[in-house]
User: What shape does this take?
Amino acid sequence: MSTAKKIALVTGGMGGLGTAMCKLLAKSGFTVVTTYMSDEDKKAKWLADMSKDGYDIKAYKCDVASYDSCTGTVTKIKEELGAVDVLVNNAGITRDGTLKRMTKESWDAVIDTNLSSVFNMTKQVIDDMTEKGWGRIINISSINGQKGQFGQANYSAAKAAIHGFTMAVAQETAKKGVTVNTIAPGYIATEMVMAVPEDVRNKIISAIPVGRLGKPEEIAALVGYLVSDLAGFMTGAELAINGGQHMM
Ligand code: CAA
Ligand code: NAP
Assistant: This one.
């Protein structure tokens, strides 16, 4: 794989899935950059932990829900490191509740952070990728964007829409060496899933044919494939990785 000096940007890289993706991309030879939203102490601890494990990751503060924040961050990355070759749109949140109880604020927060973020970040990097003739965009959707989920009208809507974006942009950039794909993970053991009440979570796990939650590394491995040169023929795809919970 010709990844020498290529730059991979993972949004929300300090979260459960993001950390596994950053590690895998660093091991694969990329210069890895992540964004973070949380406080500086959490960032410093995460960077120290990564460094202790031998990973040199760069971190930039960015609110992916804000177009201007994304413009500022990617401009800075370009000035300090170079143009982004791989973008993983991974940052996301949940604000679960039935539609009856869902507020306009929780709708907007989930749409802005999970869906508009994909536009906000992709816009910053796509021209450099097409000009170079090589690029990889990976959008992290969800099983719940494919099948819907009780209590997640906002999240299911945002995650389903991500794949529409993927398919459109994949067509626009295919001739320029850029691939755009969606990964739709099932329930993976991260803070996001641990925030689901235990009784509800146990019911969900009992409905997963493989009988367990997924591991972040299992999603990162798929990212590793998609960024490789050998994945150049795969574009506009939605890849489900969900322990058999939803088969399409
Ligand atoms: N299908 C049908 N009915 C359901 C249901 C379901 N999946 N889940 C709950 N209900 C019913 C309950 O049985 C209950 O019925 P009764 O009133 O007749 O007893 C009623 O709905 C209310 O249920 P709760 O007591 O759970 O209601 P609540 O308001 O306290 O909580 C909820 C609602 C917030 C949606 C809660 O059920 C919940 O957190 N569900 C999990 C949602 C979920 O899967 N989120 C995923 C988060 S992780 C993630 O998003 C990552 C990813 O991509 C996979
Ligand atoms: P997580 O551990 O909660 O991490 C989410 C990350 O998103 C955090 O690093 C967080 O940064 C970042 N983030 C949130 N809001 C942001 C904003 N406005 N701007 C920038 N960054 C922001 O969640 P995860 O489980 O790893 O999920 C990662 C992605 O996978 C999400 O898109 C999620 O929807 C998707 N997914 C997860 C599962 C699962 O089961 N875990 C399944 C399917 C899909 P800070 O911590 O700095 O705030």
In short: Residues 94, 96-98, 142-144, 149-152, 155, 187, 192-193, 196-197, 200, 204 surround acetoacetyl-coenzyme A (ligand 1) (CB under 6 Å). The two ends are 31 Å apart (CA to CA). Residues 7-241 form a domain with the Rossmann fold fold (CATH 3.40.50.720).
